[in-house]
Amino acid sequence: MIKENAIKFLGINGILSEKLEGFEHRPQQVKMAQAVETAFSQAKHLIVEAGTGTGKSLAYLIPAILWAVENNKKVVISTYTKTLQQQILNHDIPFLREKLGISFRYALCMGNENYLSLRRLERSAQTGLFNKADEEEQRNEVFSWAAKTETGYRSDLPFEVMPQVWEEMGRQKDLCLGKNCKTHSSCFYFKARKKWFGAHLLIVNHHLFFANVANSGAVLPAYDAVVFDEAQNLEDAATQFLGLEISNSNLFYFLDRLHNPRTKKGLLTRLDHALVPHVRKLTMTVRQAVEAFFAHFIEEYGREDRVVRFYKPPILDNGIYVPMETLRANLKSLETGLHSEEDRIDVAAVAERCFEFNNTISAILNQNFSGYVYWIEIIKRKRITRVVLKGVPIHVSEELHTQVFDKLDRMIMTSATLTTSKNFEFIKERLGYRPTEELLLDAPFDYPSQALLYVPRDLPEPGSEAGPYVEELSDRCKELIMASGGKTFILFTSYALLNQIYEKLDDWSLPFPLIRQGDLPTTLMIDKFKEKPSVIFGTNAFWQGVDIPGKALQSVIITKLPFDVPKEPLTEARIEELKSQNIDPFSHYQIPRAIIQLKQGFGRLIRKKTDKGVVSLLDSRISKRGYGKKFITSLPVCPVATQIDEVRNFFSKGNSF
Length: 657
Known about the structure:
Layout: H1 2-10, H2 15-19, H3 27-41, E1 45-50, H4 56-71, E2 75-79, H5 82-99, E3 106-108, H6 118-127, H7 133-146, H8 163-166, H9 188-198, E4 201-205, H10 206-214, E5 225-228, H11 234-242, E6 244-247, H12 248-258, H13 276-301, E7 306-310, H14 321-336, H15 341-366, E8 372-379, E9 386-393, H16 397-403, E10 410-415, H17 425-431, E11 437-441, H18 447-450, E12 451-454, H19 468-484, E13 488-491, H20 495-507, E14 514-516, H21 522-531, E15 535-538, H22 540-543, E16 555-558, H23 569-580, H24 585-602, E17 613-617, H25 621-624, H26 628-634, E18 640-641, H27 644-652
Parallel strand pairs: 1-10, 1-11, 2-4, 2-5, 3-4, 5-10, 12-17, 12-18, 13-15, 13-16, 14-15, 16-17
Antiparallel strand pairs: 6-9, 7-8, 8-9
Helix pairs in contact: 1-3, 3-4, 4-5, 6-7, 10-11, 12-13, 13-14, 14-15, 19-20, 19-27, 23-24
């Protein structure tokens, strides 16, 4: 029955072939669907790498839907990028509902801060919170949009709302009045949650999934199975979520919302109570303590961009703790004397934030959590030098194993890039995942005829990002861009090198638009790229999750092998830990991490059976260092060129559109 279902929907003469225009039968997709359905029906854990173009999402969505509907169960589909989530929501699921005759319910689950609060929107109009014209204008636009939107999603706004504006009208869990709120019946968040509990599929991102784990399952409805797509990012997502962070800018923003001495606005200006003047003075005392505390770090480390790891707790008096605790205690006293429930809940939330701030600062300064790495980041800004204190777990495998993997009978972990050296050992070890079944599927493309891999041997090795290296790298990028007629992604591992190469090529006035990450939102960059032959300069956001099939993209230039920076605190701590176990960190950790990222970058090029193009690896370590072969053998098999003329010949012989 399992094999029959997969063939029924995804086979050569299956339902998809009849109803999906441009359907391409992919044996790998059928195999994956069969394996996923087996895992659901027999209560197994499955890890599957399916190459780019397999059609992974349909291969797991169809079995997930069939199993959930037949057994009245819930399946979580968790992704890392918004791009994939939007593809599932806007393309795959509507298609399956319309064409396949399967009646099922689904819901997009988002964190509560993504929803508009109608009560807080109305309250923002009454209290005159905004003192800038552009902020007030945006508030009015949100007010107009609120009457039209069906979802209340921040992402559905027709403009990019300023964080400080959304802060005053987005939903916040600790400010919710629940059933006592006059807008409860029309609340976007509670209407959404009602759909969650009635759905067969819950579409989430990795961050929300881990928020649910951290809150003992209180965020999402109980579910029976989970599919992790883009699973190569699970370790990073879990590490980020379990981490600690506090900054001077966050604390100043918090204090400004409580009482801004410059604008004379904030929560304390709206309250009528005898304690308010005293609490305002305490707020100013905390502000002074915050300024003095972070000034110490600026004096110690300077105002220029810098990252410094704390190998042991810094010798520093925490001058914030006592005034912050005094403020918290007085806010609690103020809360009990207020008549309005709205005011009481606002003040209670602020008091709780004081408690959280103190806990976070203490945990970082005292390095309370063993197995964590701690550091400081200095980030130069025009108005303020931002100082960020951080602490994150060095490894999350034990936490994932006990809190996630052991708690479910049915789990699918998938991506186009999970293996190194054709096996899953690296990802399984990093995540603490012990699947029942493993499946490795090649992409359904004819790479030998569709793709060319260009690996020059005459470029200098990456080192100093200045001088001859940048000059020669820029010149080679120019030659490759001209050979492909634009239609190029240039992928970088750092903004510094990206900006240097961009400025060089911009000075040379190439006949193609140059689109630099950071100058425009990602979606707008991609729209412009598709309009006419162009060149995108991108970092991490463009190595994965970007899908541009067809003639717009025919050349992907990878400037450097994507090794993590070894002196970055978390990477350094992981290297130290492996060395303490007599394990070679370079071959055991750094190379596998870089291979998975390289495979992601390579995967941007060929997205359909009709696509053709060139991937250029401009890092000469590929050919000069012994480990280079590991990178080459991890990529799809295709012709390898070492001369730029071979690239020109590839394009001139009709290998482009």
